Amino acid sequence: MKPLYLNGIFGQIMDSLTTGAILIGLALELGASHLVIGLIGAIPFLSNLLQLPAIFLIDHLRDRKRIVVVSAVIGRSCLLLAAFIPLVYPSSAALALLLIAMSLRYCFGAITACAWNSWMRDIVPAAILGRFLAFRLSLMTMAAVAVGLGAAALIDLWKGEPAHIYVYVLLFVLGSFSGLLGAFFTTRVPNAEMEPREVRAMERTVRRDRLLSPFRHRNFRRLMSFQCSWNFAANLATPFFVAYMLTKLGYELTFVILLTLFSQAVTAVSLRLWGRYADRFSHKTVMGVCGSLFIFCLLGWTFTSFPDRHAWTTALLFALHAVMGFATAGINLTTSSLAWKLAPQREATSFLAVNSMVNSIAAGIAPLIGGLFAGFFAERELSLVVRWQSAQGVLDVNTLHIGHWDFFFMIAFVVGLFALNRLALVEEPGHRSQQILVRELMTDASQVLRTITSLDGLRDVVTAPWVMALNLIKQDAPPAKAASPETSAS
Questions:
Q1: How do residues 159-183 score in pLDDT, each as one tens digit?
Q2: For a disulfide at 364, which of 42, 132, 242, 373, Cβ 3.0-4.6 Å?
Q3: Who contacts 190 (Cβ-Cβ below 8 Å, separation ≥6)?
Q4: In whole angstroms, what is the distance from residue 127 CA to residue 130 CA?
Q5: Tens digits of per-residue pLDDT, 282-312?
Q6: What are the backbone dihedrals phi and psi of residue 424, each rounded to the nearest 5 degrees, phi first?
Q7: Cis peptide before 190 (omega within 30 of 0)
Q8: Using alpha carbons only, what angle is made at residue 242 by residues 237 and 248, rounded to the nearest 5 degrees?
Q9: Measured between alpha carbons, how far is 87 from 219 in angstroms, rounded to an integer?
């Protein structure tokens, strides 16, 4: 387990330095349009279409560990192409070089993910899956927060300097080396033997059937329907959050990075809670509760401008990032693990790859649609005004104002509601009602509130972050002693 934790930490450091607000900030610095921002958001998902040929590569080589390591090394090395951006800056070639670097990184990353998912499906015991993923994601998120703070400070230090473009290049180079270090720790993870190869005479038929099997499996087909609609809803809005705050609301990049880190910190704190609830109630239950919180946050973004930045915008942004971070912890924990649990073991590679492929199509189309229609919605507004007329005069109260990116937030909210309806049709063993989880969550929250009202409780609140950090560093992997038939099979 320990190499998996280290692999996740250094991989997350790479993503923190080369994606998110830093990537969008660099793209805007190089003159990216709305369509290019949408393309940047679509690249990670559209590149996952390469998981389809990766299925055949895995079936031919039958060595998932080697495929993961080699493809990760090649893809993460491609980030070093960003080091050549200053040689052609300022020009359109600089932006093209950035797009090429990110495309290559994600194309090889898709091959890595295809082999990685089925590999993890075979070596992580199902009995501790929720706790393992929660602990690993906690470490990854804490690393992202720490590295993000350093990156924000570095960007703020060089803000306005003629050589500020070199700061972004330095972050990409450090991110590439961090990713390569993560690939090194992957070599320390034990391999897992795959199922025996089918008879060669039947091999072509088997491969074709493997691609169609996920669509014939009723319950897994329902899961794919949910995840497709959910990924479309989430990625119609989220890739443009950074650009929205930088251009529409007029915030500095450093403040946007700090907001992102704040959300990630909330995610890190919440992961252990959702991991425990996922093992206790079910992954579907956690996804339903967290998904509901997330889509209402999408709706809340429409109130951050009314129609422009107002006195409550900053406070509202912190509140939205807190709730979204809390919900994202459960979503990240359950979206992949739910597919892992529902995929038949003997066909896990093809089921997970096909699921990733169809979800990537939906997630990749969404930001492209956003970029294409950004100009169309920029010239449209929808307002709802309440008017009170009396002898003293007329009072107009603007109760609703939707314009430009707000339309995407509203559409994403509606599609998110549809996705949660699809989730209700998915069957998971051990599923329990969402109402039970909500009551349990409210009970735990009330106990925490009662505790912190005392003097000892206030002391615990101050010391809790440091104690939690030390415990996360010292804590070993979750015990896997109880070997059930299901655990042994995994």
A1: 777 778 889 999 999 999 999 999 9
A2: 42
A3: 123
A4: 8
A5: 778 888 888 889 999 998 888 888 777 888 8
A6: -60, -25
A7: no
A8: 90
A9: 53
Q: How confident is the model at residue 148 (pLDDT cuts 50, 70, 90)?
A: confident
Element (H, E) at 484: none
Packing angle of the helix pair 218-237, 405-423 (nearest 10 deg): 160
Cα–Cα distance measured from residue 190 to residue 221, given in angstroms and rounded to the nearest whole number: 32
Would you state the structure tokens that stand for residue 487, as one six-digit string?
A: 């655990």
Backbone angles phi, psi at 68, to 5 degrees: -60, -50
Are 189 and 392 a contacting pair, CB within 8 Å? no
DSSP code for 431: -
Q: Do 138 and 268 contact (CB within 8 A), yes or no?
A: yes
**CA 252 remoteness from chain centre:** 23
In the beta sheet, which residues pair with residue 385? 398
Q: What is the Cβ-side half-sphere exposure of residue 10, based on CA atoms within 13 angstroms?
A: 19
> pTM for the whole thing?
0.70
Tokens of 211: 């691609």
In 3D space, the residue among 47, 116, 31 whose CA is nearest the CA of residue 364 turns out to be: 47
As a whole number of angstroms, the distance between CA 136 and CA 49 comes to 26
Give the chain's length: 490
Residue 436's pLDDT band (boundaries 50, 70, 90)?
A: low
Distance CA 471, CA 465 (A): 10
